[in-house]
Amino acid sequence: MSQINEEDNHLETLLSRNMVPIIDLGHCGIEEISIPSVINRVGLQLQKAFTEKGIAFLVNHGISDDQIRAGWEKFDHFLDLPAEEREKYNRKEGSNRGYVGPGIERFDGKTPELRHAFNICSLDPESLPHNELGNLAKILKSLASFILKALAAPLDIPPTFLLDTHSQMLCGEDANMSTLRMLYYPSVVEDEPGQEKEVIRCGAHVDYGTFTLLAQDSEGGLEVKLPGSEKWERVGHLPGAILINGGEILSLWTRQRYHALPHRVVVPEQKYIRARSRHSLAYFCHPNNATLITPNALFFPDGDKSESTVYSALELIQKKFSETYGKQ
Known about the structure:
The chain is 26% helix and 18% strand.
């Protein structure tokens, strides 16, 4: 495992204060056949992380730095294309897949978000600007499947419940809204001509789905509010690790025992950080669209089993997309 970047390690972060759990996947994260003892250990560690913090760093997950870096390079190549070529892949209204330019998404409804994004929702070659991005999506899908098996292990549910309810990941939006999102954040230069004063890299929100896997190339302003706190705190960057955080659907399924953590990406105040660009990628793991989300699904021995409103996974995410894209 790489060491923390020396340029950033003087920043006070949750990582520097040892406040983010670090979970070792034992090099089993993308293997087809999982070792039961590793699944059980990781499941208990994830349960503790999600109930106490809402996030964790995953190490020894099986995805190499070179594989992730190659994905970022291909995305850079896409961004270098002429505008008319990029526009062929623009995200269309009513869809989540494709390219989203800076300023389109505004989580608070008003502040432009300074980033380029490309959403991959299926492995159909026609929807991908580079096949290598499809290969990266397949690898992250395998890691997500491992996490789903581990999450089920300590719960009072069938071992395959989460795998079965997520069986159509990356089969397209009609079946499942799981998405690999490639992200590029440009450098921020003060008083740059034409740049809006009020910008943010990503506005405050909680993720919509089951969980999110995040890889990033540097400390770039990711902040969270830990459970029970109203204070925004910088997470920090652990090279080679993948950050996992719980989403709203997992929180609903567990009656809020597992936290959906509010987070944002600010423009860093440190000039040496804001002056460099930043890459990241996020794999948003969602249940199949037809899956009914009810707090009675993931039983806890002492849990409240009373009835409550039931939504499909698709209904929940469509509501969120309307809030994010409908106020431009």
